């Protein structure tokens, strides 16, 4: 009976390609489903055999641990070299959006706090 091995929703293309390559190298027979025309179906990698499911999950778990370590190391290297943009770079890149987000947050805080302030002012 087919079983879902790996969900592909919100997975970067390079990671999905590497997982496909890993499964092919380890001779695990799999097939893929996509999200469909409207994007509501489950995109994923499926296997037919229960034994392939367990082997595949083990391989993918090891791969993802290794990938997490590598991605973290690359991020730290970029940050140490000053190539990783920070908060101010993000604000400078999109100033109008940043101002609108800040204004919206301030509005939400105002709406949450104003009833309490009014209640405290009218207490005798």
Could you characterize the architecture of this molecule?
The protein is mainly alpha-helical and 124 residues long. The protein folds into 2 domains: 79 residues, Alpha-Beta Plaits; 34 residues. Helices cover 64% and strands 10% of the residues. It is built from 4 helices and 3 strands. A 3-stranded antiparallel beta sheet has the order 1-3-2, with helices on one face. The longest helix has 32 residues. The mean pLDDT is 93.
Which descriptors apply to this entry?
mainly alpha; 10% strand; elongated; 124 residues; Alpha-Beta Plaits; 4 helices; three-stranded antiparallel β-sheet; single chain
- Which class of the largest domain in CATH terms? Alpha Beta
Low-confidence stretches: none
CATH topology of the largest domain: Alpha-Beta Plaits
From the N-terminal CA to the C-terminal CA, the straight-line distance is 73 Å
Shape: elongated
Question: In CATH terms, what is the architecture of the largest domain?
Answer: 2-Layer Sandwich
The structural class is mainly alpha
Count every beta strand, where a strand is a DSSP E run of 2 or more residues.
3
């Amino acid at each position: 009976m087919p079983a879902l091995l790996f969900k592909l929703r919100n997975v970067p293309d390079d990671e999905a390609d590497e997982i496909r390559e890993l499964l092919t190298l380890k001779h695990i027979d799999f097939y893929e489903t996509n999200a469909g025309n409207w994007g509501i179906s489950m995109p994923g990698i499926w296997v037919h055999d229960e034994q392939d499911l367990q082997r595949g999950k083990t391989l993918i778990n090891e791969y993802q641990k290794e990938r997490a370590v590598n991605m973290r190391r690359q991020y730290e290297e970029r940050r140490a070299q000053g190539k990783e943009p920070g908060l101010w770079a993000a604000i400078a890149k999109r100033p109008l959006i940043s101002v609108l987000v800040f204004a919206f947050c301030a509005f939400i805080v105002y709406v949450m706090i104003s009833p309490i302030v009014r209640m405290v002012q009218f207490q005798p």
